Task: structure prediction
Amino acid sequence: MSRAIKVLVVAVLLLAGLQWYVPRWVSGQVATEIAAFDHGPKPTVSLTAIPFWYLLQGKFQDLYVSAHQVKLGPVALQSIQLDWQNGGLSTSALFAQHVKVTRVGKVAVTITVDEAALATFLAHQGKFQNPTVHITRAGVAITGRVLLGGVYIPLDTEGNLVVSPDKKTLIFHPTSIDGVHLPVVTDVQIFSVDSLKLPVPMVIQSVALLPGAIVVKAGTP
Result:
């Protein structure tokens, strides 16, 4: 085998090794930063960047994150799945253990919130005292005590979830209290996509009710 061929073989093997290693290293750094941010279990992160030197330019084709028990303040979301296409991250910032977006691209996020997490969130807001949440495909029921006029009074309400006009906030729209139909409805803010503090702007695209959980899908505008 000639020297030129040997050099070529070594170069190909080196490039193949870097193609395997570099995206995995970046994936590991992103996973570490997410875990440090929410103090939850380390998420699964998968990164596609072909060729790998795209990452040196702050570019990638796809970044997928799957995280469970994601803690946002006092609330632990059941799960978050994020699929980020044609985006970019600063590799120099990752070396400094920071996540810095260099290219927004297209992001799709699926967030699952269970009944216990939603009840904890409502209690933390201070509007409800000892709330209990029950979620079915037909709607959401909240029982407990609600703050009205500076006093907590018993509450037993049912309603639907709607998205705010700016598509940033999930709102509870009560239709009955203690089984009585309401002629005047008072909405309650349940969740804001901005509270996730994602590095790119997001809007809520859809909301689905499942037995015991809410699934919120959001994405870049």
Q: What stands out?
A: Residues 3-38 form the longest helix (36 residues). The mean pLDDT is 79. The two ends are 56 Å apart (CA to CA). Residues 162 and 171 are 5 Å apart (CA to CA).
